[in-house]
Structures are given as C-alpha cells and as structure tokens.
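quick one
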Amino acid sequence: MKIIIINGPNLNLLGKREPSVYGSETFEAYFNTLQSKYPKVELSFFQSNIEGELIDKIHETGFSFDGIILNAAAYTHTSVGIGDAVKGVETPVVEVHISNVYQREPFRHESYIAPNAKGIIAGFGLISYELALHSFLP
Ligand code: DQA
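structure w/ DQA:
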C-alpha cells in the first residue's frame, strides 16, 4: 500500500512554530516513528511552502497511490487550485489538521479541500496523521 503525506506551508517549522498549538516534535521525528510503526505501508512524505508544488505532487501521486494524507495548512482555507487538484485525481484524499481548526479563528473554519475529501481529521495533534493512515488500512 502506497500512502503519501503532503504538508503545506509553515509545517516545515513544526517543533519550533507555536508549540502551544502544534507541539514540540519535528515532523521528521514523528514521520520516522510512523514509518517504523507501519513497516508494511510504503509511506512517503513531501512538504512545500509553494502552492503549485503541492498541486504538482497531488497530480504526481493522485493516479497511482492508494491514499493521500493532506495537511494543506493555510492553503486549506484559501486555495481553489488545491481544492480542484483534490477533485481532479483518483486517489482518495484525507484532510488532516494538527489543531482543532473549529476552535480557532472563523477563517480556519472554511476548507476548499473538504468537499472532495474522503474525510477530515482535526485536533488530535500529530496523531491526526496516524488516524488518517488508519482510514486507508484494510
Ligand atoms: C493547520 C491549521 C491551519 O489553519 C494552519 O494555517 C496551519 C496548520 C493544522 O494542522 O492545524 O498551518 O493546518
């Protein structure tokens, strides 16, 4: 099973960025733990701060992978382009957020991904990614 985690802008700063909201673990450390916990899953990871690169990665993986776990971060709330990319591919996409976006500012309550996502997981810290991974397991 081939699953990719795609992280959007500012998520490269996890561990340093607003630790009270996003925790103090780096994504790389979390990803290594996740990989070793699920050795049978071909798990890969991509992060970009650039909207078009995220769209390109969704296109690249969206016809051959079994699942995409997408935290589009701030672009979730603004990007028609990423929303259209999710709609345009065959691979199911699970929208993930580390924080509970519905407890936060109203602009974080809107998502261009959600209408075409398989599901949404938000608010469980980095474990949100593992819960999304579970949704793809047999
Ligand atoms: C986030 C929530 C977004 O509103 C925010 O812009 C992020 C991270 C989360 O994982 O909680 O950068 O997607």
